[in-house]
Each structure stands twice: as C-alpha cells, then as structure tokens.
Design brief:
By secondary structure, the protein is an alpha/beta fold. Helix content is 48%, strand content 14%.
C-alpha cells in the first residue's frame, strides 16, 4: 500500500534509543526506508532495524561519531551507497550536559557545541547535494533551553539556540530546493524517566500534562510533509515557554 513517504529514504541520527528511535519508527510506518544512525548504541540500533524490517521497509544501522567531519561525510556516503538517495535528514542526536556558570569547563563547552551544532551543520552540508536532487527536508532538534535558557545547562542552552539559528540560515541557503525546519520539544517524558520529572513538568505546563515521544514523532512527521514551511521552529512543550 502506498503511503506518504513511500520510496523515500530518511537518515535519523541518534536513532537507536529514546526520541530518535520513535522518530525512526514513525517515518518507517509512513513508508520511508531508514538509515538508523548510532554512536555507541549498536545493539539498540540493530533492534530498531529489525523492527523497521518487520514493517516491510528497508533499514540499516550505521555508526558514526558526529563530532568528526570525516566520519559524518563517511556516514552520508554509506547511506547514499546503501539506499541510492537521501530525502530526509533528522538531526536528533544530542548530548545534555549539566553546566552552570561555576561548573562549566572547556571540555563541557566543546562537547556541547560539537555534538549539538557542529555535527548537524556538517551533516547538512554533506547531505545537501542529495537533498537538492529530491527536494528533500531537514528537521533539526532544538529544545526549550534554546529558547528560554536554562542556568544549570548553560552550554547546552547555547548549543540549542545555535540550532535555531542554524535552521534559519540553512533554510535560506538551501532554498528553494530543500526545506529546513526545527522542533523544540520540552516537558516530554519517556518510560524509565524519574517520576519527579513528570511531576515537575506538569507544574510548568499550562496544559497540566507532559508530552510523549509519539507527540514528538507526530511533529516531525508534520514538518517532513509541510511543503510551504521552512525556517520555522515548532515549539512542542505544552505551553511551558509561555
């Protein structure tokens, strides 16, 4: 049965677990073949591949260190060789390192910006020729810290603000061939998260509830198919940033 992403190929970074896994499964359920990127979660990524194949779609797990430009370029080469095209790139992989004014070190600063901004830019750069061929789309991940700033996560917040500006500049640079948008999730909880997170998030959300990974995947799906939207940051936080 033909679905909206039939014949398309998606590369999802950090797709072995948590939000990346759910996003990869959602795109596969809509007909996409999926390159499942992982950093260290090889076993989890292999399981995602098996789940996608059970849906009748093609999938392959591919490892790369996203702070290395050489490995990023190698990842794109492997995806294009394996699948013959790239239509969707979802920059989901990220770290989340605590860092206050006092505790931020050079190592934390560099790790935050290298993983959360440098990697997505060079992946977009490497994938751009393939995305231009298919009028493809990039979906970046920022978060609430990139909008309002979290004092206990200074380097992380700066990196996620960088993702917002990266989205806007890439949207201009790659138009009209490629659309580039971002999602900024917040107050999202997943199975296994501490119970106190949900209690705290409920207090912060005007909707008085937390979001789910499926809510995030729904938003990504929308941005992939929103043909008249580019350079936009879709905030998905139950109103927290209000």
């Amino acid at each position: 049965m033909e679905t909206k992403l039939s014949g398309r190929v998606a590369l999802v970074t950090g797709a072995g677990k948590r939000l990346g896994r759910v996003v990869a499964m959602r795109l596969a359920s809509e007909g996409a073949d999926v390159a499942v990127h992982f950093g260290k979660s090889e076993e989890e990524a292999s399981e995602v591949v098996r789940e996608i194949e059970r849906l009748g779609r093609r999938a392959a797990a591919m490892q790369a260190e996203l702070t290395s430009v050489e490995q990023i370029r190698g990842l794109v080469q492997r995806v294009s060789h394996e699948f013959g095209r790239i239509d969707v790139v979802v920059n989901c992989a990220a770290n989340f390192l605590p860092s206050s004014v006092v505790s931020t070190t050079e190592e934390i600063w560099d790790a935050s910006l290298d993983t959360n901004v440098k990697g997505p830019f060079f992946l977009a750069q490497a994938a751009a020729p393939w995305l231009r061929r298919s009028n493809g789309v990039i979906v970046n991940f920022s978060d609430g810290g990139g909008i309002s700033g979290w004092p206990r996560y200074i380097a992380h917040s700066v990196s996620k603000t960088g993702m917002i500006m990266l989205t806007k500049t890439l949207a201009k640079a790659l138009a009209p061939d490629v659309r580039v948008n971002a999602i900024a999730p917040g107050t999202i909880t997943m199975p296994g998260d501490p119970a106190e997170w949900e209690r705290e998030f409920v207090k912060l959300s005007p909707l008085k509830k937390t979001g789910t990974p499926e809510d995030v995947a729904e938003a990504v799906s929308y941005l992939v198919s929103a043909k008249f939207m580019t350079g936009h940051v879709l905030v998905l936080d139950g109103g927290r940033t209000l």
